[in-house]
Structures are given as C-alpha cells and as structure tokens.
Amino acid sequence: xxxxxxxxxxxxxxxxxxxxxxxxxxxxxxxxxxxxxxxxxxxxxxxxxxxxxxxxxxxxxxxxxxxxxxxxxxxxxxxxxxxxxxxxxxxxxxxxxxxxxxxxxxxxxxxxxxxxxxxxxxxxxxxxxxxxxxxxxxxxxxxxxxxxxxxxxxxxxxxxxxxxxxxxxxxxxxxxxxxxxxxxxxxxxxxxxxxxxxxxxxxxxxxxxxxxxxxxxxxxxxxxxxxxxxxxxxxxxxxxxxxxxxxxxxxxxxxxxxxxxxxxxxxxxxxxxxxxxxxxxxxxxxxxxxxxxxxxxxxxx
Length: 301
Hints:
Rossmann fold; 47% helix; globular; eight-stranded mixed β-sheet
C-alpha cells in the first residue's frame, strides 16, 4: 500500500475539523511539486553577483513565471536593475505589516520581485524567528512560480548561508582577483560545513580570456579538494564587458539592455546549463527548507 492509497482510506475516517492546520499543510505539500530554486552568492561584494541574478531572472522569465528574491536584507538593491521602486519589501513582511504576496513588485509579465530592505541595519542580522517569517512567506508564494532566484548578500553571515543551503542549487560568483577567490573558498567552506551534500556551481566573472576563467576555477577546485575533500562544479565564465556597466547605469539588466553583447551571450549560455542541471533532480522547496533550518536554529537556543 502506498501513501496515496493510505490517505484515501484514512481520510473518510477523519473529521475535517480534527486535522490540525500544520498536518493539513504538510499533507498538501506532499501532493505538489516545488519550484526549482537557485541562490546566487559570493564570498565578497563587487563580483557581479547581482548582475548574474538579474540576468538569470530575466532569462528564466522568458519561459516561465519567475520570482526574484532579494536576500541582501538591509541593503537590498535588486530593484535597481529592474528599474522599479517597491512599495513594500521583506522588511514589511518581517515586521508583520504585510503578507509576502502583498510585498511583490511586478517587473515584467512573468517576473516578480520580492525586494529586500534598503538601509535597514536590523535586517542584516535577523533572529531565527524573524528569518522564519521570511521562509513562511516564500513558502506561501512557491506554488505560484516555476522558478525562484535568490540574489544573496555577499559574505558568510548566518542568514546568507541559510539561503544558500536551502536552495536546490547554489551558484557562487567570483572574479580572478585573489581576494575574491579567497572569499569564494571561505564561502564554500562554511556552506559545506552546514550542508555537506550541497549542489554548487561556480561562475568566474569579468574575465579577459576564457582560459583565465578556467585557471581561476582550477585554483579554487584544487584548494577545495585538498582541504574540504570535495570539489565544485565550474560551469563557465563571463567576459569583462563595458555593456554591463552601461546597463547598470541605466537601471536595466544586461539581457534587456544589450542582449547581443558578449556578457549577455555568455550569461544566456550559463543559464541554459543551470536550467538543464536543475531538471535532473528533485526540488525541495526553498521556503520549506529555509523554515526547517530556522526551526533547527530555534531548537538550539
């Protein structure tokens, strides 16, 4: 007897009012799939993480309903490359002033934004209970989308690692700069300590030649294998391109502003690879996984 058969037998015996709200919610989750989720992250600021996030969101939105989540809580700027001004943000969700569905900002017909706070220092260090409110809000939105893209904060804060660990796939963005490589390794070290089986891709941004990206990735891979006992999946590089700077100045994603430039073409190829990779394994639900992580933190103290 499988789970579906058991539910059909048991359901007539259970009065609707006796089923707890949490059990009803868990039962409903068992009977629907979750949107695939990716977290775009970096060990340090200035690597172009938000450029990659905006590009991936725009490219996913060409095919399906997509939600871009600005998880740079406190100094969020994902709205800048969408040329929108959110009326409500995750600050309002955390403080109980709005539901997550009310905090959505429409960016294009198939792309919505759940904006982070801007200039709100308290959002940079949320308590597990506050982060749990965000997780619940994302879980409520999950069914309405076919892809969730998280534009993470730079660095290795608890909540940044929590988002990366909760996503189906983490994409680490670095540059060939030695400090960026060092910080990318630091991020991977903390992430793997938190989630040893995390699926992680690596993108090297702002390269002057393709070999430079491969060499950068090889250095990070070598250190990861030596000290962490596992590698990271390098999927490619994005060339240094003046059109990216111009698009940011215009408050636009490079995919929209200069779709045929070298950086846009590289990002399109990389997004296709990530989309194909995500199709090969089950999706656990970003909000659900993040909420479970918050529950663990709460139980510790």
